[in-house]
Write a structure and sequence with these properties.
The chain is of the alpha/beta class. 54% of the residues lie in helices and 10% in strands. The protein has a six-stranded mixed β-sheet with strand order 3-6-9-12-14-15. Strands 1-4-7-10-13 form a five-stranded parallel β-sheet. Helix 5 (60-70) packs across helix 16, helix 8 crosses helix 9 (126-136) and helix 14 (321-334) runs antiparallel to helix 15. The longest helix has 27 residues, at 339-365. The two termini are 34 Å apart.
Length: 385
């Protein structure tokens, strides 16, 4: 356990107030609003020159990664502390903890190290896989994976669930990271390598997730009994997918033929959802049920075929990010000395900072040279401090 002065130092390192990222994002928005007509009429050829630098050193995504590394990640700090504590209890675990955790600079590097050694083959050694993972994952993936790790900890039924155990041993989390790499490969048109990743993951984790499907962050995935997710399926935030779940097609449709699962849905073991149908927010599909018709928000369905049995007594707005943030703030105002609230506040601040970088990345993807200039200004300003 940390001493009181160590805890105070930890919180001080991660509570950095109004950051450069926020300040420059607001400054960039203000300057964009105040642009004169001459700047707005900048030619397409000039913007092309801005977007495509001559050297990789000036490449905008490298700058974003540098900013990303400067954000203090409270989750990664917690995992490192747990690893150091685990060493005192089990010294023989030293090689694993040093190789995959303590020697790594970030959560993403640690996951890349672990996964690359788990799924390496003769055709794709661990070093090549690690490089592939780090090259393909974007800042939006960083945020989603951060939320996936939190979900793996909070929704695990194990009493001794920790962030370190989830990082090292939760195969559902590892499978999600591999899916996100394959999804980026698919989007880049590298379908052959994306299918290779899908096949390798299927043989190692007993989960067949098509690289073209869309999955948000904060997903808890249990792959013990095999999971199948089809090409045109979409999975929202905070979804729990337990073993044996299938999100498939009916075999009678072509094109967009797989389910659309909204935020906060719970799919129990062996649940099957077939066809291009919607499963509403907060719904529950019980074990062994077969769903072929749309499921309303907060409904609890079961049976073959599945029918609505009852409705959950939950606040639907709780699945809205702003509403959840307000609820968290109000609750912690009453318990301002509670450690969970302190750590939760640090995590929320970190995600806000990371989301600002994600928006910058999206802006650069759209070809806006001003966003790239903003990122460069942040780095220059930070280096002068």
């Amino acid at each position: 356990a940390m001493k009181e002065d160590e805890l105070d130092a930890f919180i001080a390192d991660h509570r950095h107030g109004e950051s450069l990222v926020k300040a420059w994002v607001s400054k960039g928005k203000q300057s964009n609003n105040e642009e004169d007509e001459a700047t707005q009429q900048q030619t397409a050829e000039q913007r092309k020159d801005i977007r495509r630098p001559d050297t990789y050193v000036d490449e905008p995504y490298r700058h974003l990664r540098l900013l990303r590394r400067r954000l203090p990640d409270p989750l990664w700090s917690q995992i490192r502390l747990e690893a150091e504590h685990a060493l005192t209890l089990e010294p023989d675990a030293g090689p694993q903890l040093y190789q995959h955790v303590l020697r790594q600079p970030s959560l993403m590097d640690a996951l890349a190290s672990i996964i690359s050694h788990e799924i390496e083959t003769e055709l794709m050694p661990a070093t090549a896989l690690r490089t592939l993972v780090m090259d393909q994952l974007r800042l939006g993936d960083d945020k989603n994976i951060h939320l996936d790790v939190v979900a793996s900890v909070n929704r695990s039924p194990s009493e001794d669930s920790t962030a370190l155990n989830a990082l090292l041993f939760h195969q559902g989390l590892h499978c999600l990271v591999c899916y996100r790499v394959a999804h980026r490969l698919w989007q880049a048109g590298r379908t052959g390598l994306a299918y290779y990743m899908q096949s390798t993951v299927s043989s190692h984790y007993a989960a067949d997730i098509h690289p073209a499907c869309e999955m948000e962050g904060g997903i808890y995935l249990s792959v013990g009994g095999g999971v199948v997710i089809g090409e045109t399926a979409r999975v929202g935030r905070g979804v729990t997918i337990l073993q044996g779940v299938t999100l498939g097609g009916t075999g009678k449709e072509v094109g967009d033929r797989h389910p659309k699962v909204e935020d906060g849905v719970l799919l129990h073991p062996g649940a099957t959802v077939l066809g291009n149908i919607r499963v509403g927010k907060g719904a529950v599909v019980t074990a062994k049920s077969i769903v072929t018709k749309e499921v309303p928000d907060l409904a609890r369905v079961s049976g073959v075929p599945a029918k609505v049995r009852s409705y959950r007594e939950l606040w639907l707005k709780g699945y809205d990010e702003d509403a959840r943030q307000n609820m968290w703030t109000e609750e912690c105002d009453l318990l301002n000395s509670d450690l969970d609230c302190v750590m939760g506040g640090l995590s929320e601040d970190y995600l806000v900072e990371l989301e600002a970088l994600v928006q910058m990345e999206t802006c650069i993807d759209a070809g806006d040279g001003d966003c790239w200039n903003t990122v460069t200004d942040i780095l220059n300003s930070d280096s002068q401090r």
